[in-house]
Amino acid sequence: MQEIAIEQLPGGATASSIRVGETLIEEDEIAREMQYHPADSAGDAHFKAARALVVRELLCQRAEHLGLAGDSQDDSEAAIAALLDRELEVPEPTEADCRRFHAAHPERFREPTRLEVRHVLLAAAPDDAEARDAGYRQGRRLIEQLTEHPERFTELAQRHSACPSKDQGGELGWLQPGQTVPELDRALQHLPVGLHDRPLASRYGWHVVVIDRRVEGREPAFERVVDRVRHCLREQASRRALRHYLLALVAEIGVKGIELDEDVDRVLMQ
């Protein structure tokens, strides 16, 4: 059984009155747990920490009932792992299941589009309006020069670019999604081969971009991705099994001060 990170359980909570069976979840426990649950606000982190402790306590109480519990934190984690190995029933996906899932979701297994890219970075901080404006105008001038004289790209990159790639004439090599900053990444995915007709913005400034080659992502045959398909189905089945198991423990042991509903499958698998 995979190790499970216990968090993200939906529902409302009142920290001072959260109980799992007869066990009170103390406020200082929640405060210590918050460091493991980064969030946009302290309130959200507090809430997520409280939910994580509730689920952990449910599992620990069940482990103790079955004689699996230990005294230390490490023993508790081992007991929870042993408990889930023992009590979670996760069906193994069949080949027919895998083929149906692959046919229904081919986009999930598509190979990424790859781009061979050169650029000139004209550096300008996001909050420096004057530098951003000057950089954009410079980028337009460079594009005009390159439209007339594309063979000068290496020269202009070495002269003007603020990126270390200038030493290679602005060459970034082959890129695929996720290999550069998101705002530039999104723009690059839609560009055709050739010199783009205007500078592209990123948090670092403006980019004069040439796409030298573009290789579109393909949907591989089932046989090439069968292991990935099977992994997806196992993960889905594990989440469903865990959701049902935790809801059964809530019904058996009882939880007050926080609601755990059908969205308990937001507990993440690692």
TrEMBL record:
Stored InterPro entries: PPIase_dom_sf, PPIase_PpiC, PrsA_foldase
EC number: 5.2.1.8
Top-rank taxon: Bacteria
Span of domain PpiC: 112-213
GO molecular function, one term: peptidyl-prolyl cis-trans isomerase activity
Keyword Ribonucleoprotein attributed: no
EC class of the enzyme, as a word: isomerase
One Pfam family recorded for the sequence: Rotamase
Reaction catalysed by this enzyme: [protein]-peptidylproline (omega=180) = [protein]-peptidylproline (omega=0)
Entry keyword set: Isomerase, Rotamase
Family from the record: Belongs to the PpiC/parvulin rotamase family.
Name of the protein in its database record: peptidylprolyl isomerase
